[in-house]
Amino acid sequence: MTRSYRFPANFVWGAATSAYQIEGSPLADGAGPSIWQRFAHTPGMMANDDNGDIACDHYRRYKDDVQLMRALGLNGYRFSLSWSRVLPEGTGRINQKGLDFYSRLVDELLENGIEPNATLFHWDMPAALDDRGGWLSRDCAHWFAEYASVVFKALDGRVKLWSTINEPWVVTDGGYLNGALAPGHRSKYEAPIAAHNLMRASGAAIQAYRSVGRHEIGVVFNIEPKYPASQRPEDVAATRRAHAYMNEQFADPALLGSYPPELKEIFGDAWPDFPVDDFQLTKQPVDFVGINYYTRSVVKHDDNGYPCKASRVHQKHVTHTETDWEVYEQGLIDTLMWFKTRYGNLPLYITENGAAFYDPPVAEGDVVKDPKRVAYLRDHLRALHQCVEAGVNLKGYYAWSLLDNLEWSLGFAKRFGLYHVDYATLKRTPKASAKFYAKVIESNGEALAE
Ligand code: BGC
Questions:
Q1: Which of 198, 205, 239, 348 could be disulfide-bonded to 168 (CB atoms 3.0-4.6 Å)?
Q2: Does residue 162 surpass a pLDDT of 80?
Q3: Please, are residues 121 and 80 in contact by the beta-carbon 8 Å criterion?
Q4: Nearest Cα to 69, choosing from 363, 401, 427?
């Protein structure tokens, strides 16, 4: 008998994007600049001098993009709101036109039978707040709750799934420790403070939601499982540190109200004694957790490996993506099983999963042939089905990404889309992975058996 890959009834089949990566027109209709607007226009920060001025022009083409979602058969779409479109200075004055854009987008989705999953923060902090200290200021929890409340009041009821912060680890590691992402700081002293404040802000937004909102709210973590390169004690210890740094540093304060002890070991005198009361704020009951999964890492001890004295061992004879990430679907299973054991059987969504691969030039009238992305999707969705069978409380899956977009400081060259975007004409063309995903959705998973 062939295996059945049928997913649970009401499973959310979605795709994900984020504001700065797709919208373009970042300063239109009264929006204020974000830190990404600033960063992308700072010479030397972006590959190929790319920026989000036009991106996919989704701000003006959102109706067409909703039709692309419909062609896939999606019943869910995860997007983020640009904070500085809604509050140009980050707090205070509301820019109604900015809010109206998201209101129109949500209406368009609902009219097409697609449930919105709105992320409040996907990295593009208002520049005006960065000038006031950004995530290093303890005030950011109030700022974020204020912004969140404005958005909840405008959209809750129509939006039934909310996420507070997307990938706090990337925000702090890229933005405050190694400087590759906005706001481009490099400080071992700042990183833990920004990380802690992000989790306080997430908690404050969840708290605000409980007085205004009537539906579900959660937070999104990128989890990358770590495996020791050998059983030597120093490799095992390095693996433990890397895992605490990347995965537990964020999920623990949110879900357990504490930090793992390895963080003190990693940061030494840069690790602050956080006020105990803060953990009441970070640990708010969530309705679900979003997990973004892309790859794993095999870890060895390395005295120069910053900041965990650990480094990644590149695996041979396996597929790597264009971002040099190992394709490893077993890691998705290990991640969800670990999560269930450590934090309980919470409702989970895979809020991002996908891969950048080289896509051949587009032939007129044809789909873009992307066999590696098809295989990536198929193998990760099969792995997810295994998790469902093992009792993981999985509610939905959002492929990253609906369409090729600005891969942050790596620019437009890294393509993750189900739809190809020609950046000269902005024409969208389906890839074979879009056709494949549509079949999976239509059969509620059964097509994974083929
Ligand atoms: C982010 C996305 C990004 C994707 C691929 C995630 O870290 O949430 O914005 O494009 O991974 O790198």
A1: 198
A2: yes
A3: yes
A4: 401
Tokens of 277: 């009361």
Q: Which of 334, 341, 417, 318 is nearest to 373 (CA)?
A: 417
Rounded-to-integer distance, Cα 140 and Cα 150, Å: 15
Residue type, 70: R
* Residue 131 neighbours by CB distance under 10 Å: 12
Query: What is the residue type of 177?
Result: L
Q: How many CA atoms lie within 13 A of 326 on its CB side?
A: 19
Query: Of 167, 190, 262, 407, which one is the catalytic site residue?
Result: 167
Mention every residue, 6+ apart, whose C-beta is less than 8 A from residue 115: 12, 75, 76, 77, 109, 160, 161
The H or E element containing residue 276 is none
DSSP 313: P
Interval between CA 40 and ligand 1 midpoint (Å): 16
**C-alpha to C-alpha distances, 280 to 202, 339, 343, nearest whole angstrom:** 12, 21, 17
CB-based contacts of 350: which residues, under 8 Å, 6+ apart? Answer: 290, 291, 292, 293, 332, 384, 394, 396, 397, 398
Residue bearing the CA closest to ligand 1, atom 10 = 407
Q: What residues does 214 pair with on adjacent strands?
A: none
Domains of the chain: 12-449 (3.20.20.80)
Position of tokens 């590696």? 372
Beta carbon of 163 within 6 Å of any ligand 1 atom: no
| Structural tokens at position 25 | 């027109």
Catalytic residue chosen out of the listed positions 115, 224, 248, 352: 352
Query: What are 178-220's pLDDT values in tens digits?
Result: 999 999 999 999 999 999 999 999 999 999 999 999 999 999 9
352 is catalytic: yes
How does pLDDT run across 51-92, given as a tens digit for each residue? Answer: 999 999 999 999 999 999 999 999 999 999 999 999 999 999
Q: Return the sign of the alpha-carbon dihedral for residues 405, 409, 413, 417.
A: negative
Query: Measured between alpha carbons, how far is 208 from 205 in angstroms, rounded to an integer?
Result: 5
β-partners of residue 126 are: 34
